[in-house]
Amino acid sequence: MKLIVIGHGMVGHKFLETLFAEAKQDAHFHVTVLCEEPRPAYDRVHLSSFFSGTTADQLSLVAPGFFEQHAGQVDLKLNAQAVAVDRDAKTVTLADGAVLSYDKLVFATGSYPFVPPVPGKERNDIFVYRTIEDLEKMTECGARSKSGVVVGGGLLGLECAKALRDMHLDTHVVEFAPRLMAVQVDDLGGRVLRRKIEELGVNVHTQKNTLQIVAGESATHRMEFADGSFLEADMIVFSAGIRPRDELAKASGLALGPRGGIAIDDACLASDPHIYAIGECASWGGQTFGLVAPGYEMARIVARALIGQEAAFAGADMSTKLKLMGVDVASIGDAHGNTPGSRSFQFTDERKQVYKKIVVSDCGKKLLGAVLIGDAAEYGSLLQMMLNDMELPESPEFLILPQLEGGARPALGVDALPASAQVCSCNAVTKGVIADAVLGGACDIGAIKSCTNAGTSCGGCVPLVTQIMKSEMAKAGMAVNNHLCEHFPYSRQELHHLIRVGGIKSFAELLHKHGTGLGCDICKPVAANILASTWNDFVLKPQHASLQDSNDYFLGNIQKDGTYSVVPRMPGGEVTPDGLIAVGAVAKKYGLYTKITGGQRVDLFGARVDQLPAIWEELIAAGFESGHAYGKSLRTVKSCVGSTWCRYGVGDSVGFAIALENRYKGLRAPHKIKFGVSGCTRECAEAQGKDVGLIATEKGWNLYVCGNGGMKPRHAELIASDLDEAAVVKLVDRFLMFYVRTADRLQRTSTWRENLEGGLDYLKQVVVDDRLGIAAELEADMQRVVDTYADEWKNAVEDPAVRQRFRSFVNTEGTDDNVVFMAERGQIRPATIEERRRTIPIAVA
């Protein structure tokens, strides 16, 4: 079957994903995808993050290798505009004259930004907010502007206002209606929302009808309003709503909806049985849908129809929960109380700027809608009550009233939800799917996300998903606990607390006070790690040495042949010529294999255990110390050359990287940690792929956290921007110590972040805003680690008892004859088993 998909946005790509995920292996499809833009599908929901450092590649929705995996089945054409559809001939004509035939055609053309017919709208430096190309033009204009105006106070308008504010412009929002987000919130909610937005530095102008745009006196433009007032700004962005892209369908004779959009039935079929329409270009029951979740559902229905499965579109819930410029905003169902006989309960706290309203049926037993501004904690429960037609408690007003001391707010028990309850509307994940995933072995939120996709889009459902997961685990008889092992009925976080508060200094003391038995290979290294990060004792002290794993015990990474690698610390990747000569001399003397690591260090491979102290001594004499490449600790701080050498550099990335590495080099953590420091937004140090990343801008440093490579790469997220170096150090101190205190065993910062129910917002509140009131304590803990730092290699070679451990055999000074090497590219490598049998090795270590 030959399919043509016109449009490759979020909904168009969801169609492709569903089609190839659910089609049988022998299904014969050839899909041609026509994409007007120069790049494949990307995330428009989070488009504003482009202005805070997220790249176009990071916004991409196309999994690496997707089109390569389906080569021969999918042909993606970029910069390809469809200009005509001949329904009789079943062909699509492109702007370049090419004519393509189809058996089935899918319109996924989306929408276009509505620009009111205002005289002057064609002036330079006036934009729409829709594509990455639009954002690139806005970025260029923003660099030479001082002020900006967004025309439109809806969802997209406020997102756009955030973008202008992120560019440090004096930002204004102009709205024709009497309140912001007029579709989603009522008058009282709009008043609270306006006050919160204005407190964030955005000027709000409502009930403004723009008559014309002319040249300004103090800025590039002047907007003249019908009430006689005016507003001047250097940049204007129209974000006044969207209209369906239906012009091509209209020209082909397809029926349209009463308000535009391609008319479709429950199967998403247009008025031609060979043509479908999905997403914002489609009109179902006279209604178009501007949210991504209904578009995704349409995409799934059409994909399943094409592979022979029956499905029907039954409309969509337009409830939404967003965080606009840091302000929680949620709207559920009939938020305005338009249902005949409906009644509402409202709560307003003008001091905290919180507004909540629920709309209930005339009998008071069913929830019809809700509005939440400033605090949307109840969104998940209220949404499920409405979607599943659940009976309300006797006093429904307590669902939104603050919890009184000693009293409990009525809550939705997840057991009351039917298996068919849709928990994640973005990805159509039901409670039943989550329950099946738990039975299949997914027992943490990260695993649930991976196998069901729940919570991977907007993230608003994560708290409810977590509750369902734990409930289903309990039903299945699974242990819903976070015990470290059989010897300690505590999580790693709880053990950390017990050690720190109780002043416990050894594993024996910990076991005596809080554990049972003798300990195991799980709890011993964890306890050793916590003791090291809390008290910063030398890890090979007698009371600690037996707890360590092989790498920590020998202060080096053990390799496949039983030898060890040695990585001297080179802070920030900087090393003098004399230092390089010294490293080379050591490698040559001991016959070691040398390689530059991905973290800008020199790794020396092939050292026998008995050689380690001598190698360390020579490196220490040359000014080096342990690089902690073996520990669950700070490994490297990667840097570019920055403003010192690079013509693009705006920050001293090398100097700052060295300072950061020297500060945090002794810190033990639940998992290894890597930093990156880039001197400009060209990002040569790959800072956004690190646990802690810094990127220099003209206004200071942008701080990113919780990124990593590995089996599941994750981009770091911006947590604070425009920081001086002192502010960076303060926030990194807090972030690292909070991670050390609260992460699970062997949990990377990325996984830890994924499992924080409050997500990035909660992390910001703790680290940046000090919501828990522990910032000073975290900083003091870090300073204690910094002040007590000692080089572990130096401690090892200077302590005779420790040095005595570094022997191949306990009862002889001999070496291990099984360690043999072969020559390759002028260096050595471990010999394979077959090579040992048939050749004479070049060296016996």
Automatic annotation (TrEMBL):
Residues reported to bind siroheme: 684
Keyword Oxidoreductase: yes
InterPro entries named among the record's database cross-references: BFD-like_2Fe2S-bd_dom, BFD-like_2Fe2S-bd_dom_sf, FAD/NAD-bd_sf, FAD/NAD-binding_dom, FAD/NAD-linked_Rdtase_dimer_sf, NasD-like, NiRdtase/SiRdtase_haem-b_fer, Nit/Sulf_reduc_fer-like_dom_sf
Domain Nitrite/sulphite reductase 4Fe-4S: 631-767
tRNA processing among keywords: no
Domain BFD-like [2Fe-2S]-binding intervals: 423-470
Record-annotated FAD/NAD(P)-binding domain positions: 1-286
Pfam families for this protein: Fer2_BFD (PF04324), NIR_SIR (PF01077), NIR_SIR_ferr (PF03460), Pyr_redox_2 (PF07992), Rubredoxin_C (PF18267)
The record's free-text note on cofactor binding: Binds 1 siroheme per subunit. Binds 1 [4Fe-4S] cluster per subunit.
Single GO term (MF): 4 iron, 4 sulfur cluster binding
Pathway this chain belongs to: Nitrogen metabolism; nitrate reduction (assimilation)
Cofactors, names only: siroheme; FAD; [4Fe-4S] cluster; [2Fe-2S] cluster
EC code: 1.7.1.15
Matches recorded under PANTHER family: NITRITE REDUCTASE (NADH) LARGE SUBUNIT
NCBIfam families, alphabetized: nitri_red_nirB (TIGR02374), PRK14989.1 (NF011565)
Family of this protein: Belongs to the nitrite and sulfite reductase 4Fe-4S domain family.
The protein, known as: Nitrite reductase large subunit
Species whose genome carries this gene: Massilia cellulosiltytica
Gene name in the database record: nirB
